[in-house]
Amino acid sequence: MEDGWRAADLHLHTFYSYDVVPTREVDPLVLYEKARARGMSFVCFTDHDTMKAYDRVGWTREGVVTGVEVKVLDRKRVGHTVHINVYLLSRQQFEEIEKIARVAGDIEMLVEYLKAENLPFTFNHPFWHEPVEKLNAGAVVELADVFPVLEYNLGRIAKLNRMVLELAAAKSKGVVAGTDSQTGDVGRIFTVARGENFREFFEAIKSGDSRLVTEDLTYHRIKNEIRNRLEMLMDNRRWVMGKEGLRMETGNALADAVIETLSGGREDVLAVKREVTKFLARIVSSTGVPARLYLRKQNMLASRIQQELNLAL
């Protein structure tokens, strides 16, 4: 890396996220070392509504930048769930952010707080929604106005990521690239910008003075991701801690039933039933059918967004 330039993957999950299997690959300590080895100047963990990773890796460790992924359902303004990454926050600020997000459910109030506290934040995978929700594309376009930076996400297909780039260009917003990895694949995509510290680095991104190293979600990538997550889930001998409340919703009833059987820990689930489920899950995963269905779902979403917005962002 040339002098003055820094690199960071600003969207990364550890085993403290509710939907991540607790194996060694996603231990914050392992991820920190892996990120540094891959050339990341800043290492940031953005778990869902928790900052426990920093208690494990250290809040002030060299190169560590505090972060969290906040979930907000603003029914009045948006109508579907929005994910926001916040950086450089303290424990106290995190507690206040959670109150606003969970109790008020008001994105404008949250953004006002983040700006007042001078906290960097990004609009994660803008054209995304929870499986049980319907995306309000028009609201996404309007909502982009209040965010300084939008996210290019490895978990999205090329069409959806191109829409984010077009939206950012139309609104004069910065863009970051994040893996959003839940299997330990840190630094697969990342952002490069100048800055002696993280705040300067983020300011450069906001102003558009940055570079993205990107990939998009493809058939082979999602097939491998599904296989990896299933293997992590099925082989609980690899688990480094218990995981009560593990939730890995896919939006597919059959897949979610398999996950519940493998992770629920219910007394009524016999060992033989679990082994049969593992066997069937491996067979189905190897066919690539789940990967094709997932890509089809994203392509259908992209087409619907294009129609709703008349291809004009």
From TrEMBL:
Top-level taxon: Bacteria
GO MF annotations, alphabetized: 5'-3' DNA exonuclease activity; 5'-3' RNA exonuclease activity
Annotated organism of origin: Candidatus Saccharicenans subterraneus
SUPFAM superfamilies the record matches: PHP domain-like
UniProt xrefs under PANTHER family: EXONUCLEASE (PTHR42924), POLYMERASE_HISTIDINOL PHOSPHATASE N-TERMINAL DOMAIN-CONTAINING PROTEIN (PTHR42924:SF18)
Protein name: Polymerase/histidinol phosphatase N-terminal domain-containing protein
Sequence ranges assigned to domain Polymerase/histidinol phosphatase N-terminal in this UniProt record: 8-74
InterPro entries for the chain: PHP_domain, Pol/His_phosphatase_N, Pol/histidinol_Pase-like
CDD domains associated with the record: PHP_HisPPase
Gene3D superfamilies the record matches: Metal-dependent hydrolases
